[in-house]
Amino acid sequence: MGKNKNEEKKKKDDIDISQYDKFSGISHRELNIGLWIAKNKKKFIISIIVILILLSAGFFLYSGYHYAYYFLEGKEYDEKLAQDLSNYDNASMEYRLNNPLDSLEIKYVHSYKTEDKIDLVSEIHNPNGRYYANFEYCFVDGETEILCDEDFVFPLEDKHLIALALDENVSQNLNIRLSSVSWSRIDAHKYPDWSKYYNDHLDFKTENIRFRPARQSPLSDKMSLDVLEFDIKNNTAYSYWEVPLNIVLYNNSRIVGVYKHTLNEFLTGTNRSVRLVWPGTIVQADEIKITPRLNIIDPDIYIKY
Protein backbone atom coordinates (compact mmCIF):
# COMPACT_ATOMS: atom_id res chain seq x y z
CA MET A 1 0.00 0.00 0.00
CA GLY A 2 2.76 2.40 0.97
CA LYS A 3 4.66 1.38 -2.09
CA ASN A 4 1.75 2.30 -4.36
CA LYS A 5 1.49 5.73 -2.77
CA ASN A 6 5.19 6.41 -3.33
CA GLU A 7 4.90 5.34 -6.93
CA GLU A 8 1.91 7.66 -7.52
CA LYS A 9 3.77 10.59 -5.95
CA LYS A 10 6.79 9.90 -8.13
CA LYS A 11 4.60 9.81 -11.21
CA LYS A 12 3.11 13.19 -10.28
CA ASP A 13 6.59 14.66 -9.75
CA ASP A 14 7.68 13.36 -13.12
CA ILE A 15 4.85 15.15 -14.92
CA ASP A 16 6.12 18.22 -16.80
CA ILE A 17 3.31 20.73 -16.32
CA SER A 18 5.14 23.35 -18.43
CA GLN A 19 3.88 21.49 -21.51
CA TYR A 20 0.44 22.98 -20.78
CA ASP A 21 1.70 26.60 -20.96
CA LYS A 22 0.96 26.77 -24.67
CA PHE A 23 -2.73 26.10 -24.03
CA SER A 24 -3.30 28.68 -21.28
CA GLY A 25 -1.01 31.48 -22.53
CA ILE A 26 0.37 31.91 -18.99
CA SER A 27 3.43 30.05 -17.89
CA HIS A 28 3.63 27.95 -14.77
CA ARG A 29 6.36 30.28 -13.47
CA GLU A 30 4.13 33.33 -13.91
CA LEU A 31 1.33 31.56 -12.06
CA ASN A 32 3.66 30.84 -9.16
CA ILE A 33 4.81 34.46 -9.02
CA GLY A 34 1.24 35.71 -9.10
CA LEU A 35 0.26 33.29 -6.35
CA TRP A 36 3.20 34.40 -4.21
CA ILE A 37 2.27 38.07 -4.65
CA ALA A 38 -1.36 37.34 -3.80
CA LYS A 39 -0.33 35.54 -0.64
CA ASN A 40 2.01 38.40 0.42
CA LYS A 41 -0.11 41.36 -0.76
CA LYS A 42 -0.85 42.48 2.77
CA LYS A 43 2.84 42.44 3.66
CA PHE A 44 3.62 44.56 0.57
CA ILE A 45 1.06 47.18 1.52
CA ILE A 46 2.31 47.29 5.11
CA SER A 47 5.92 47.66 3.88
CA ILE A 48 5.02 50.57 1.56
CA ILE A 49 3.12 52.31 4.37
CA VAL A 50 6.07 51.90 6.73
CA ILE A 51 8.50 53.32 4.10
CA LEU A 52 6.24 56.34 3.46
CA ILE A 53 5.89 56.96 7.21
CA LEU A 54 9.69 56.83 7.63
CA LEU A 55 10.21 59.23 4.68
CA SER A 56 7.61 61.65 6.04
CA ALA A 57 9.19 61.50 9.48
CA GLY A 58 12.62 62.17 7.96
CA PHE A 59 11.39 65.19 6.00
CA PHE A 60 9.54 66.47 9.06
CA LEU A 61 12.65 66.17 11.24
CA TYR A 62 14.82 67.82 8.55
CA SER A 63 12.41 70.74 8.11
CA GLY A 64 11.91 71.05 11.86
CA TYR A 65 15.64 71.22 12.45
CA HIS A 66 16.13 74.02 9.94
CA TYR A 67 13.10 75.96 11.17
CA ALA A 68 14.40 75.66 14.73
CA TYR A 69 17.90 76.71 13.63
CA TYR A 70 16.50 79.74 11.80
CA PHE A 71 14.44 80.91 14.78
CA LEU A 72 17.32 80.31 17.21
CA GLU A 73 20.24 81.63 15.13
CA GLY A 74 19.34 82.32 11.49
CA LYS A 75 16.88 85.10 12.26
CA GLU A 76 19.53 86.99 14.17
CA TYR A 77 21.97 86.47 11.28
CA ASP A 78 19.45 87.80 8.75
CA GLU A 79 18.83 90.87 10.89
CA LYS A 80 22.57 91.49 11.07
CA LEU A 81 22.90 91.04 7.30
CA ALA A 82 20.05 93.51 6.70
CA GLN A 83 21.74 95.97 9.03
CA ASP A 84 25.06 95.56 7.21
CA LEU A 85 23.36 96.16 3.85
CA SER A 86 21.66 99.23 5.25
CA ASN A 87 24.99 100.52 6.52
CA TYR A 88 26.53 99.86 3.09
CA ASP A 89 23.72 101.74 1.33
CA ASN A 90 24.15 104.64 3.73
CA ALA A 91 27.91 104.65 3.20
CA SER A 92 27.43 104.47 -0.56
CA MET A 93 24.94 107.34 -0.45
CA GLU A 94 27.28 109.36 1.75
CA TYR A 95 30.14 108.72 -0.68
CA ARG A 96 28.03 109.85 -3.65
CA LEU A 97 26.97 112.97 -1.76
CA ASN A 98 30.58 113.77 -0.84
CA ASN A 99 31.88 112.82 -4.30
CA PRO A 100 29.19 113.89 -6.76
CA LEU A 101 29.58 113.17 -10.47
CA ASP A 102 30.67 116.10 -12.56
CA SER A 103 28.03 117.35 -14.94
CA LEU A 104 28.38 117.04 -18.70
CA GLU A 105 30.22 120.04 -20.08
CA ILE A 106 28.90 121.96 -23.08
CA LYS A 107 31.87 123.41 -24.94
CA TYR A 108 30.04 125.40 -27.61
CA VAL A 109 26.97 125.60 -29.86
CA HIS A 110 27.31 126.87 -33.45
CA SER A 111 25.15 127.22 -36.55
CA TYR A 112 26.25 127.21 -40.21
CA LYS A 113 24.36 128.27 -43.32
CA THR A 114 24.21 125.80 -46.21
CA GLU A 115 22.33 127.37 -49.12
CA ASP A 116 18.84 128.00 -47.70
CA LYS A 117 19.26 125.62 -44.73
CA ILE A 118 21.22 125.65 -41.49
CA ASP A 119 23.34 123.05 -39.73
CA LEU A 120 23.84 122.98 -35.96
CA VAL A 121 26.68 121.51 -33.94
CA SER A 122 27.55 121.33 -30.27
CA GLU A 123 30.41 119.58 -28.51
CA ILE A 124 30.01 118.05 -25.06
CA HIS A 125 32.54 116.48 -22.72
CA ASN A 126 32.12 113.80 -20.03
CA PRO A 127 34.67 114.60 -17.29
CA ASN A 128 33.98 111.40 -15.31
CA GLY A 129 36.47 108.58 -15.65
CA ARG A 130 34.29 105.58 -14.75
CA TYR A 131 30.76 106.67 -15.66
CA TYR A 132 28.98 106.99 -18.98
CA ALA A 133 25.78 108.94 -19.57
CA ASN A 134 22.61 108.47 -21.59
CA PHE A 135 20.76 111.72 -22.09
CA GLU A 136 18.25 113.70 -24.10
CA TYR A 137 19.08 117.03 -25.70
CA CYS A 138 17.37 119.86 -27.55
CA PHE A 139 18.82 122.62 -29.69
CA VAL A 140 16.92 125.70 -28.60
CA ASP A 141 16.59 129.26 -29.80
CA GLY A 142 15.65 131.12 -26.65
CA GLU A 143 12.72 129.07 -25.38
CA THR A 144 11.87 127.58 -28.78
CA GLU A 145 12.93 123.97 -29.35
CA ILE A 146 14.47 123.50 -32.80
CA LEU A 147 15.37 119.81 -32.75
CA CYS A 148 15.42 117.19 -29.97
CA ASP A 149 17.10 113.79 -29.85
CA GLU A 150 18.89 111.41 -27.48
CA ASP A 151 22.48 110.22 -27.30
CA PHE A 152 25.21 108.82 -25.04
CA VAL A 153 28.76 109.74 -24.09
CA PHE A 154 31.44 107.47 -22.65
CA PRO A 155 33.90 108.28 -19.84
CA LEU A 156 36.28 111.19 -20.62
CA GLU A 157 34.87 111.35 -24.15
CA ASP A 158 34.25 114.44 -26.29
CA LYS A 159 31.25 114.15 -28.59
CA HIS A 160 29.69 116.26 -31.32
CA LEU A 161 25.92 116.57 -31.49
CA ILE A 162 24.91 117.48 -35.04
CA ALA A 163 21.66 118.53 -36.69
CA LEU A 164 21.57 118.96 -40.47
CA ALA A 165 19.52 120.88 -43.03
CA LEU A 166 17.06 122.64 -40.73
CA ASP A 167 14.64 125.20 -42.07
CA GLU A 168 14.55 127.43 -39.00
CA ASN A 169 16.44 130.68 -38.85
CA VAL A 170 18.18 131.04 -35.53
CA SER A 171 19.06 134.12 -33.53
CA GLN A 172 21.97 134.84 -31.24
CA ASN A 173 20.16 132.93 -28.47
CA LEU A 174 21.07 129.51 -29.90
CA ASN A 175 21.83 127.00 -27.17
CA ILE A 176 21.54 123.32 -26.29
CA ARG A 177 19.57 121.92 -23.37
CA LEU A 178 20.48 118.57 -21.79
CA SER A 179 17.86 116.61 -19.85
CA SER A 180 17.11 113.15 -18.42
CA VAL A 181 20.81 112.51 -17.86
CA SER A 182 21.23 108.94 -16.60
CA TRP A 183 24.61 107.90 -15.23
CA SER A 184 25.89 104.30 -15.25
CA ARG A 185 29.17 102.99 -13.90
CA ILE A 186 31.41 101.02 -16.24
CA ASP A 187 31.27 97.42 -14.98
CA ALA A 188 34.83 96.58 -13.91
CA HIS A 189 34.08 92.83 -14.13
CA LYS A 190 32.98 93.06 -17.77
CA TYR A 191 35.49 95.74 -18.74
CA PRO A 192 38.56 95.41 -16.48
CA ASP A 193 40.55 97.60 -18.88
CA TRP A 194 38.01 100.07 -20.25
CA SER A 195 40.57 102.13 -22.15
CA LYS A 196 41.77 99.08 -24.10
CA TYR A 197 38.21 97.90 -24.74
CA TYR A 198 37.26 101.37 -26.00
CA ASN A 199 40.24 101.66 -28.35
CA ASP A 200 39.94 98.08 -29.64
CA HIS A 201 36.26 98.53 -30.57
CA LEU A 202 36.66 101.95 -32.19
CA ASP A 203 39.81 101.28 -34.20
CA PHE A 204 38.84 102.73 -37.58
CA LYS A 205 41.52 104.25 -39.82
CA THR A 206 40.65 107.03 -42.28
CA GLU A 207 43.05 108.04 -45.02
CA ASN A 208 43.20 109.62 -48.49
CA ILE A 209 40.84 112.35 -47.29
CA ARG A 210 40.05 114.77 -50.13
CA PHE A 211 37.70 117.73 -49.84
CA ARG A 212 36.66 119.95 -52.75
CA PRO A 213 34.60 122.98 -51.79
CA ALA A 214 31.80 124.14 -54.06
CA ARG A 215 33.96 126.72 -55.85
CA GLN A 216 36.38 123.94 -56.93
CA SER A 217 33.83 121.22 -57.67
CA PRO A 218 32.79 120.52 -61.31
CA LEU A 219 29.35 119.58 -59.92
CA SER A 220 28.75 123.16 -58.81
CA ASP A 221 27.96 124.86 -62.13
CA LYS A 222 24.34 125.40 -61.09
CA MET A 223 24.40 124.40 -57.41
CA SER A 224 26.92 124.91 -54.60
CA LEU A 225 27.97 121.35 -53.84
CA ASP A 226 30.78 120.35 -51.50
CA VAL A 227 32.47 117.00 -52.19
CA LEU A 228 34.25 114.84 -49.61
CA GLU A 229 36.05 111.60 -50.43
CA PHE A 230 37.94 109.30 -48.09
CA ASP A 231 38.90 105.69 -47.44
CA ILE A 232 38.10 104.04 -44.12
CA LYS A 233 39.21 100.64 -42.78
CA ASN A 234 37.68 98.61 -39.97
CA ASN A 235 40.77 97.58 -37.99
CA THR A 236 38.72 96.12 -35.16
CA ALA A 237 38.07 92.41 -34.65
CA TYR A 238 34.34 93.08 -34.90
CA SER A 239 31.75 93.48 -37.62
CA TYR A 240 29.02 96.09 -37.21
CA TRP A 241 25.52 96.37 -38.64
CA GLU A 242 25.91 100.14 -38.86
CA VAL A 243 28.75 102.56 -38.21
CA PRO A 244 27.46 106.13 -37.86
CA LEU A 245 30.10 108.80 -38.55
CA ASN A 246 30.35 112.38 -37.37
CA ILE A 247 32.24 114.55 -39.86
CA VAL A 248 33.57 117.93 -38.75
CA LEU A 249 35.46 120.25 -41.10
CA TYR A 250 37.91 122.85 -39.74
CA ASN A 251 39.79 125.77 -41.21
CA ASN A 252 42.44 127.46 -39.09
CA SER A 253 41.16 125.40 -36.10
CA ARG A 254 37.64 126.80 -36.50
CA ILE A 255 34.67 124.64 -37.48
CA VAL A 256 33.41 125.60 -40.93
CA GLY A 257 31.00 122.73 -41.60
CA VAL A 258 29.55 119.45 -40.34
CA TYR A 259 28.02 116.32 -41.84
CA LYS A 260 26.83 112.84 -40.81
CA HIS A 261 27.04 109.56 -42.67
CA THR A 262 26.34 105.88 -41.88
CA LEU A 263 28.19 102.82 -43.19
CA ASN A 264 26.07 99.66 -43.35
CA GLU A 265 27.34 96.16 -42.56
CA PHE A 266 30.96 97.18 -42.04
CA LEU A 267 32.85 93.90 -41.65
CA THR A 268 36.08 93.42 -39.74
CA GLY A 269 39.24 93.96 -41.79
CA THR A 270 37.42 95.53 -44.76
CA ASN A 271 37.93 98.88 -46.49
CA ARG A 272 35.34 101.31 -47.79
CA SER A 273 35.78 104.16 -50.24
CA VAL A 274 33.28 106.90 -49.46
CA ARG A 275 32.18 109.83 -51.61
CA LEU A 276 29.79 112.38 -50.14
CA VAL A 277 28.18 115.34 -51.86
CA TRP A 278 26.05 117.96 -50.12
CA PRO A 279 24.89 121.54 -50.68
CA GLY A 280 27.34 123.88 -49.00
CA THR A 281 29.22 127.11 -49.06
CA ILE A 282 32.48 126.06 -47.40
CA VAL A 283 35.35 128.09 -48.80
CA GLN A 284 38.21 126.00 -47.48
CA ALA A 285 38.91 123.19 -44.99
CA ASP A 286 42.43 122.31 -43.85
CA GLU A 287 41.45 119.62 -41.32
CA ILE A 288 38.68 117.03 -41.31
CA LYS A 289 37.80 114.81 -38.34
CA ILE A 290 35.78 111.65 -39.05
CA THR A 291 34.66 109.98 -35.82
CA PRO A 292 32.57 106.80 -35.37
CA ARG A 293 29.79 107.17 -32.79
CA LEU A 294 29.13 103.55 -31.83
CA ASN A 295 27.55 102.41 -28.59
CA ILE A 296 30.14 99.68 -28.13
CA ILE A 297 28.52 98.21 -25.00
CA ASP A 298 25.29 97.48 -26.89
CA PRO A 299 25.44 93.82 -28.06
CA ASP A 300 22.86 94.44 -30.80
CA ILE A 301 25.27 96.51 -32.93
CA TYR A 302 27.53 93.53 -33.66
CA ILE A 303 27.12 91.11 -36.54
CA LYS A 304 27.41 87.62 -35.08
CA TYR A 305 28.40 84.59 -37.14
Percent of residues in helices: 25-40%
Span from first to last CA?
97 Å
Summed up, the helix count is 5
CATH topology of the largest domain: Immunoglobulin-like
Order of helices and strands: HHHHEEEEEEHEEEEEE
Query: What best-fitting shape do the alpha-carbon axes yield?
Result: elongated
Question: Which helices and strands, and how do they pair?
Answer:
Blueprint (H helix, E strand, L loop, with lengths): L1 H13 L6 H4 L3 H12 L1 H58 L6 E10 L2 E9 L5 E11 L2 E10 L4 E9 L7 E12 L8 H8 L2 E9 L12 E10 L5 E12 L2 E13 L4 E9 L7 E6 L13
Antiparallel strand pairs: 1-2, 2-5, 3-4, 3-6, 7-8, 8-11, 9-10, 9-12
Compact description:
This protein is an alpha+beta fold. The chain is built from 5 helices and 12 strands. It has a 3-stranded antiparallel sheet with strand order 1-2-5, with no helix packed on it.
Task: Tell me what the structure shows.
With 305 residues, the chain is an alpha+beta fold. The chain folds into three domains: 26-100; 105-185, Sandwich (Immunoglobulin-like); 194-301, Sandwich (Immunoglobulin-like). 31% of the residues lie in helices and 39% in strands. The protein has five helices and twelve strands. The protein has helices at residues 2-14, 21-24, 28-39, 41-98, 194-201, and strands at 105-114, 117-125, 131-141, 144-153, 158-166, 174-185, 204-212, 225-234, 240-251, 254-266, 271-279, 287-292. Strands 1-2-5 form a three-stranded antiparallel beta sheet, with no helix packed on it. Strands 4-3-6 form a three-stranded antiparallel beta sheet, with no helix packed on it. The longest helix has 58 residues, at 41-98. It starts with a helix and ends in a 13-residue tail after the last strand.
